[in-house]
Design goal:
This protein is an alpha/beta fold. The chain has 2 domains: 69 residues, 2,3-Dihydroxybiphenyl 1,2-Dioxygenase, domain 1, CATH 3.10.180; 60 residues, 2,3-Dihydroxybiphenyl 1,2-Dioxygenase, domain 1, CATH 3.10.180.10. The protein has 3 helices and 8 strands. The strands form 2 sheets. The chain has a 4-stranded mixed beta sheet with strand order 1-4-3-2, with helices on one face. It has a 4-stranded mixed beta sheet with strand order 5-8-7-6, with helices on one face. The mean pLDDT is 96.
Length: 130
């Protein structure tokens, strides 16, 4: 058993795809036309870190309720965790790409960590080895 996808509600598909693929280095696994439950067009967009693992279903907000959670899916907490092998290189690359870090890198017993915001404003931990 494994967790395959987690939905991330975004304002628009294309800027979110660009952030996750161009900035974070995820792979675009699928971008297919689909329909909402009431028949309106949407897209099925999945991105994953290189090499697989749990992917993100990028879901465009549909309606006021969903629009309200864009950027606040974990109620202001860190809700996503990106583990990398080379923390320093990844951190430098992300800073160079304009990613906003709201907590600078620090050493914790479990490894290096810095908190950044995704394109919508959700908080992520960038995690590396101790």
């Amino acid at each position: 058993m494994r967790l395959d996808l987690v939905t991330l509600v975004v304002a628009e598909y294309d800027p979110a795809i660009a952030f996750f693929t161009d900035v974070l280095g995820f792979e675009l696994v699928e971008d297919s036309p689909s329909l909402t439950t009431d028949g309106r067009p949407k897209r099925w967009v999945v991105v994953r870190p290189p090499g697989g693992g749990t992917g993100l279903l990028l879901a465009r907000a549909d309606g006021v309720r969903q629009e309200a959670v864009v950027g606040d899916q974990a109620a202001g907490r860190v809700g996503f965790f990106l583990q990398v092998d080379d923390f320093d290189a990844t951190y430098r690359r992300m800073v160079g790409a304009g990613v906003e870090f709201v907590r600078p890198p620090c050493a914790e017993p479990y490894g290096r960590v810095a908190v950044f915001l995704d394109i919508a404003g959700n908080r992520w931990d960038l995690l590396g080895p101790a």
